[in-house]
Specification:
Length: 195
């Protein structure tokens, strides 16, 4: 497929992004650049100065709701992008109504219990919907360990072991690589539906 054919397919697709932090904001930017038609983004948090080392926000946006700031930034890339933003804490009772019309969901949470909740909800109520999660991206170096593994409709991106701690923080390069692996996996799913 050439770029115009790719954009023609992606323009008709909707991607859900659960969380607008390091993974979610960078994955959203990457998908916007390749011409995705619509993003459904959910996050409840505000931009903090500590986010700027790895998230797709700017200093002047500190204090602003992440969903609002992200929409601003994405529309600077592609003013034709459709964005449905939800300023909410995602819970089992709102995940399905928010993401039910998506072609794929990208999980971009910080905590394991949130990841588990999203996976369980989608598996039970929308079992045909692919879910792409990020797992293991802390620190720096070891870029070759970052990859995607597929388990049915679940795609795991990262190294699956480098957990975030005070002395092993999430930094822009590895977080960005995993976010882009997630975006690339979205393209694989949407552009090769038989895989």
């Amino acid at each position: 497929m050439n770029i115009e054919e790719i954009k023609s397919v992606l323009k008709k697709k909707t991607v859900g992004i659960a969380g607008a932090g390091g993974l979610g904001s960078n994955c959203a930017a990457s998908l916007t650049r390749v011409g995705i038609g619509k993003l459904v983004i959910a996050d409840y948090d505000c931009v903090d100065e500590s986010n700027l080392n790895r998230q797709f926000y700017f200093y002047h946006q500190i204090g602003k709701k992440k969903v609002e700031a992200l929409i601003e930034n994405l529309l600077l890339i592609n003013p034709e992008l459709l964005v449905e933003a939800h300023d909410v804490v995602l819970e089992p009772d709102n995940i399905i109504p928010i993401f039910k019309d998506c072609d794929v969901i990208v999980e971009a949470f910080d905590k394991a219990d949130q990841k588990k909740m999203l996976i369980e909800c989608v598996t039970e109520y929308l079992p045909m919907l692919p879910v792409i999660i990020g797992l293991g991206m802390a620190g720096y170096g070891n870029s070759n360990n970052l990859k995607m593994e597929k388990y049915g409709k679940l795609y795991i991106c990262g190294d699956r072991q480098s957990e975030i701690t005070e002395f092993y923080p999430p930094l822009s390069p590895r977080v960005g690589i995993v976010a882009h692996i997630q975006a690339n996996t979205v393209l694989e799913i949407l552009l090769n539906p038989t895989n």
